[in-house]
Amino acid sequence: MKALILAAGLGTRLAPYTDHTPKPLFPVGGRPLLDMIIRNLETAGCESIIINTHHLHNKIEAFLNLQRYSIPVTTRHEPVILGTGGAIKNAGNFWDKRPFIVINSDIYTDIDLCEIYRFHLGHNHPATLVLTDYEEFNNVQVDEDNFILGFENSRVNPLPCINQGHIKRLTFTGIQVLNPEILDFIPANSFSNSIDVFRQMISCGKKLHAFIPKKHFWNDLGTPGKYIDTVIGETAPKAFKLAFPDYDKDQKINMFRLKGDGSDRGWFRLVSEKDSLIMADHGIRKELSATEADSFIAIGLHLHNKRLPVPRIFLHDSFSGLVFLEDLGDTNFQTVIMNTKSQSETISRYKSVIDLLIMLSLTGGSGFDVSWTYQTPCYTADLILEKECRYFTDAFIKGYLNKEIDFDRYEIEFKIIAALALEHQVKGFMHRDMQSRNIMVKNSEIYFIDFQGGRLGPLQYDLASLLIDPYVGLPSGIRSELVDYCAGKISSLAGIKADNFCRCFKYCSITRNLQILGAFGYLSSVKGKSFFENYIPAALRSLKESFEAPEGKGFPKLKSLIDNLL
């Protein structure tokens, strides 16, 4: 037998993701749908395959050129889309006198293609259409002898698969076996829909047989939601097996959505009996350049391989944006500190985090590949000016406070602060968001999460993020003691004078504070996450303290601006 795989469609329901990747190349479990279908046809005994192409046809052809299949696989490009019927007609010189298979390229199924072909050879009707009960698309009318009576025009409010006067309504799976006589019903060199062709054949007295597989799975991956659901169904059991070798594939996996903070990512806890994993959903890839998911995966694997305290990533799929990782529970460092009963205990706990933070910076910076970053490779003056200083003026002062401000008036002072924040830096891996809600505590062990924004930069910036964190609001006296503690530890390790370390820290505190307020303003006013408004007063107080200190007195314009914000 021969086969046609229909792969010319624009994939509009999957836009914008199909702007860069044709739908047949969407992967499930790391394998493109097109490859799965070709392999299934090989297994079924197919002798030759032709694939019609149109949208991003060069990418499909490039993929096929890299493969080694046991049977010939060719493409037929359609400069203008011909439709499902037109594609069958356009492949007319490919067919021989035997029945052939036609299959959509956007389905995920385990239906046995060999069994379908044998079924078709067992009757003398011109077509076998594989049908399934899928309530959303149940628009094919079938009689009690499993012959197709017709196709409803609308998919609005489709009827479920129930008997109504011996008539069932089912869904066409996109899998069919056809006799060559169907070519006589399809017009040449024009657009044609195969459903219209089937209607015409029925009106001429032809009988189309339905094949209804008994135990199977099938899904149409034409929408983002269906695609993601299918990927989860395929990869979650594999992730559990990697994390828990005793996991049985028949064990049910339940999924519970977790509350996120500022991120647009979805967080889920997957539970199977006594075991659990966390699934991060970054969303389907929107661009071919490095994405947040790529950075999360690459940086997370790097830090874990360095034996640093981050959750282990068990399985990942950067195209779908899904990452399955170790479940560290629900207790973050903010909760621990808020329940700490004494100042000495608070200081002790922070010192434990600082010890690990130094390791994260120095060890994590060793062998760090800047190509893993999706924003900028390093913490630079330009980044400070745009993503922290301008972010503060645009997102917080203008966007949140609705006050007019001329950034240019303060630019010179911002530039000086940026330069001083980089002077005397201890350069290593910089987390960029080292606050108490991104530190988890499990069984008294500390772990760092949300490292996808990491890059090379000053240890002092992460220390500032930790100590001026508005979620906790450490008193200035404790902050000073902890800065001195870190300076003393790092001076022997990195060969930097404690005074210089502390000087850099003070300016990193300012830039971090500007970033915090910009983020809180944006999340509150644009994203509607009012939770963050609760912490704006603490962040403003911290910023004002910085400008009341000797370091802030050299910036009169900014000091006046900030004084008038409170």
Secondary-structure map with pairings?
Layout lengths: L1 E6 L19 E2 L2 E2 H11 L4 E6 L3 H9 L7 E5 L5 H8 L9 E5 L2 E3 L3 H9 L5 E6 L7 E3 L5 E4 L16 E11 L15 H10 L4 E4 L6 E3 L3 H20 L10 E5 L7 E7 L2 E7 L10 H14 L7 E5 L4 E5 L6 H6 L4 H23 L15 H18 L8 H16 L4 E4 L8 E4 L2 E4 L6 E4 H9 L8 H19 L3 H28 L10 H13 L7 H8 L3
Parallel strand pairs: 1-4, 1-6, 4-5, 8-12
Antiparallel strand pairs: 2-3, 6-11, 7-13, 8-11, 9-10, 9-11, 14-15, 15-16, 16-18, 17-18, 19-22, 20-21
Helix pairs in contact: 3-5, 9-13, 10-11, 10-14, 11-14, 12-14, 13-14, 14-15, 15-16
**Number of separate structural domains:** 3
CATH architectural category of the largest domain: Alpha-Beta Complex
How many extended strands? 22
Tell me the name of the CATH class of the largest domain.
Alpha Beta
Overall 3D form: elongated
CATH topology of the largest domain: the name is Aminoglycoside 3'-phosphotransferase, Chain: A, domain 2
Strand percentage, roughly?
A: 15-25%
- Tally of helical segments: 16
Structural class category: alpha+beta
Radius of gyration: 30 Å
Terminal CA distance reads 78 Å
CATH superfamily of the largest domain: Aminoglycoside phosphotransferase (APH), C-terminal lobe
Mean pLDDT: 94
Helix content: 25-40%
Largest sheet: 9 strands, mixed
List low-pLDDT spans: 155-162
